[in-house]
Each structure stands twice: as C-alpha cells, then as structure tokens.
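EI: anyone free to look at a 500-residue chain?
SC: sure, send it
EI:
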Amino acid sequence: MTTIARATDTLTRDALTVLQPGFTGTTAPDWLLRRLGEGLASVGLFGRNIATAEQLAALTAQLRAEREDVLVAIDEESGDVTRLEVRTGSSFPGNLALGAVDDVGLTQEVAAELGRRLAACGVNLNWAPSADVNSNPDNPVIGVRSFGAATDLAARHTAAYVTGMQSAGVAACTKHFPGHGDTAVDSHHAMPRIDVDAAVLAERDLVPFRAAIAAGSRAVMSAHILVPALDPDRPATLSRRILTDLLRGELGYDGLIVTDGMEMRAIAGTYGIERGSVLAVAAGADAICVGGGLSDEDTVRRLCDALVAAVRSGELPEERLADAAERVRALARWTTAHRTDAPGAEAAGGHGDGDVGLRAARRAVRVTGAEGFTPLTDPPYVAALTPVANIAVGDETPWGIAAELLRMLPGTETGSFTGPDAGREVLAAAGPRRVVAVVRDEHRHPWMAAALDVLLAARPDTIVVEMGVPGAEPRGALHLATHGAARVCGRAAAEVIAGV
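SC: here you go
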C-alpha cells in the first residue's frame, strides 16, 4: 500500500499540493479529479490537452467542479511557443518581436489581451514571460523567446508583460531564473553551464528578474542550469544558495517558486525526478512542474511518496514542505480573488483588442532592400529551410508564410527543405516561379546559409524571410526580419511581399 492511498493526513496533502502534473487527453481523467479531492492544487496543460477554446473552457470547468481554487497552468508564451493555438500558430508575436518594436505600452497590451483569452478559458497561471537576456546568439533554446540581448530592454518589457498578464487575473510566472540566455545547451537534453562571474550575472541576467519582482510577478520559474559563480555543485532548481539565499534573500522575492519541467534531461538524467523533486523543495522551490513528458498517475504517486518519505527520514524539513504548500494555496487565493468573471473584473480589465497581436507583428517587421522592390502579383514558390524545432517550441505548430501568401496570391506553392543539398532541391522544385526563401536562425545553421548562397547565385531575385533571430547579414532582393515565426508574423511578412 502506497503512502498516497490514504491521502488524508496533512503531510500527504501538502506533498500533493506542491505538484503541478500534466495528463493526456482533452477531458480530465478520473485519477486527476480524485487527486484534486485529496489535496492536489495545480494542473498543467499542454498542447495535447487543447482542441478549441470551448473545449478548454469545459475542461477547466470540469477541474473547478472538483476544486474551485485549482491552479490551471499553461506554457503560453505566445509567438513560437503556443499551446492555445498549437495547431494554427499564435495570434500574438513572441517576445523578440515585442522587443524589436520596443514599445512597453504595446507589450503590456499584448500580454493583457493574451491574459484575457487565457482567463476566458479558465486558465489562471501562465508559465511566462521568459525574462532571459539572450546574450549568447547561438543559444539553441531561448532565441526569439527572449525580448533581446540588451539587459535594460529585457527588463522593461518583462515588467510590462507581467503587469499586462496579471491585469487580466492570470498570474505571471517569470522564467528561467537566474537566466538561461547565456547557454549553448538546451536543458531539455543536458545540463547547461554558465561560466561568468557573479558581477556579470548581477548586472546582466538578474536585472529583468528584479524588474519582474518589482512589477509584482506572482511566480518565478527556476532554470535547470549550473551557474558555478552562484553554486558550483547544484543546478539552480536544486540550489538553496540560488533559490533561497539569492531569490528570496537578496532579491526579496516572496511569491511562488516553480521548477521548470522535472522530466527534462538536465534533472531527470542526473538526479532522477523523485530525488530531484525532494532536493528542489528543500532548496526553496514551492511547486514541482512535471507533465510535459510524464503525464500519468504513477508519476504523481512516485513524487508524492518521495516527498513524504523525505520528510519522514528527516531529509526534508516538514515545515519547508508546509511552507511550500501554503505558498501554492496563497497563489490560488490570489487567482480566485482576481478572477475576471468576478464582479467588477471586466471593468478593471477592459474589453480587449483582438487585433493587437497583428498590429504588433506588423510593427516588428524590419525590411531591407525595399528601394527597388515591386510587390508580387504572380504566385511564388515558398521554400521553407526548416531546422529541427527545439522541444519548447515543438514540431506541431506550423510556421512560415506560405499559408498567408496562398490566401493573398492563390496558386502559391511550397515545400520544406533541409540538409546540404537544400539549395539545389529548391531550384529544381521552384521551376520558373519567383522564390521566397523562409529561414529560421540562419546564423546558427551552416547548411541553411549554404542553401541561400546557392539560391541567390542562381536566382538573385530571391526574397529572404528570416523568422528567427536575425543574426546573419540581410541578403536577397528583399530581406524581411519578422523576429519570430508566429502566424501573425507570417501574415505581416506576406503583406509586404504581396503589397497588401
């Protein structure tokens, strides 16, 4: 008989309360509803759980019927990382596009409208924004998810995003503390390491988090990264020096500390999820995020049992677990008090602007070489030079501009290409049509740069659309940098090409 089966004692309820698990399907399974009755206080949603806004609203209502104050969390950064619109692409540009516009009022508007849409579906905790300063241009996992490489820029837009999101009654969760921007490794796959001294971290990476705390961010998410200047032995998620001494002590943060996904290889592959969860709570984390990959009842049972056993053995102080659980409940109380269907909430939040995402995307497009450019009237061939998607983005979400150009220029054709022969393959597929080459982070992919070399040598009139971080020199008859691959970024670029 497992510890969890009794599920009535305070210790077990507290252990359940600190978990933020996921599940499969578009309705809540019986085991999840039962756990909500036994103390589980949070549920994490992913793209696999969402079909439509109406279905999502029904799902969250199903969860609230079991526990009215349940925290329903989602990873909705907008831009490249979307769960609400995982199959169509986001109606909002991501952080890099907002940073490129650099209008904090616009960033706040975008976050408020996104928050309103989340709240309307019953979601009250968003694992966003990314406050990471993208100081390493080769970063494989942050990139367009960051507001940019400048510290002050990232700080002011992080604060604006937090303010906008929370104005809609949805708690923001600022990530990835103490900053994932200067990494060359994706923590989904292995343990990244940041080798800079503490002074650089304080002046560069910590500044946006200070801004988020000042703006009242209700939650902060830890990063699975090793930062030897702060703790030479343990990654941030498992480090008391980083979560308790730095974040709580030095930065004065008093809200909820959430871990990044514990099944990511940086933790699961080195400590295991049970041991990692115990160490994280002991270090100062209040909520254990798990469910992106592991999404079954057994995972919840294993983690709950591990926490209970650690308290009983003396490894995890009972008061630390109780404090973590109370912080989860405190956030639940905040979201209940700020629900947008509460009396007066609509007046406080306003009615929103459904077009703000497209307006922002249009403002983010940077055009090079437009002097002699004539908008296309004949349907082109759109060649997507497609890199492997990082896990945070996923490969479910469509990207590019072909769908938008097809709507504006009927007959447009498209294909996806990758590898050393991509350039020649595009030329063969395109035939006489004008080529529009769509790339993502050309500066990070030598094969992509080589493909453009081949295309531009043979077809100098090729139009290039960069939908990642614009790190390479602009080239092509026309070069458009969209600062992200959201659906609205594709539409904004297509409008320039078609002269709409």
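EI: Residues 120 and 412 are 36 Å apart (CA to CA).
SC: 👍
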